[in-house]
Specification:
The chain is of the alpha+beta class. The protein is built from seven helices and four strands; from the N terminus they run H-H-H-H-H-H-E-E-E-H-E.
């Protein structure tokens, strides 16, 4: 990321990962092996695939391994394949280590890698969704996730999208996504925060209710 918000918090991404670690890892440890074979909303990926991807992505951060093409679909598939013979518990061990140790590296990168933390948090929501657990794309890390979402939307890594003012349930100030460029007025979203996360991450929207004016759902997808 070449542009850093004036109120950027270098510890935010690591804090989000640690908060999610404390909620997610016990859930994973308690799950039977067959639960890891359940399909998620990520095309072609089971819960185990998602967790293997997350663990490998964070290991790359911890070990500063960023070869050409890293985090591309092909690179992600290779990382998952390399863990095909691992036990589920070993996959979770790697994920826990990454969520614990990545924070200082993310802080030192001054925002350039924070999108990894946000993606990991969204994937944790994918797992909860697949297992029918409450709190998908919400929970104790939501405030930090929203701030990271706003930051990511103004980074050089986000796809160009119209600016958006999001009036979120329970939040006094609107969340502003994107950077106005003078070509169109900001779009407006009214609804809850987890649904906004779904929209920006390109996740399914069944059972949600919200108002959106000035943009289409497709235009709000920043990653996914």
């Amino acid at each position: 990321m070449t542009r850093v918000d004036e109120h950027y918090e270098p510890e935010r991404a690591g804090r989000l990962l640690r908060t999610e670690r404390d909620a997610l890892i016990p859930l994973l440890r308690a799950a039977p092996d067959e639960a890891y074979a359940i399909r998620t909303c990520c095309p072609g990926w089971t819960v185990r695939h998602v967790l293997a991807h997350c663990g490998s992505a964070l290991t790359r951060v911890v070990e500063s391994r960023f070869e050409e093409g890293v985090y591309s679909p092909e690179s992600n598939d290779r990382d998952i394949a390399e863990r095909a013979d691992w036990s589920n518990s070993r996959v979770v061990d790697e994920l826990e280590r990454g969520m614990t140790e990545a924070g200082p590296v993310l802080a030192a990168a001054r925002g350039r890698l924070d999108g990894v933390a946000l993606g990991e948090w969204v994937h944790a929501g994918d797992v909860r969704e697949a297992w029918g657990k409450p709190g998908a794309y919400g929970g104790d890390g939501l405030v930090d996730a929203l701030d990271l979402l706003g930051q990511f939307s103004r980074s050089d890594f986000a796809a160009a999208r119209p600016p958006l003012h999001a009036d979120l349930d329970g939040r006094d100030e609107p969340l502003v996504l994107g950077t106005p460029d003078g070509t169109r007025p900001p779009a407006r979203y009214i609804g809850d925060a987890p649904t906004l996360i779904r929209l920006c991450a390109g996740r399914p929207l069944p059972g949600t209710r919200y108002e959106l004016a000035g943009a289409t759902e497709k235009e709000l997808v920043l990653f996914g």
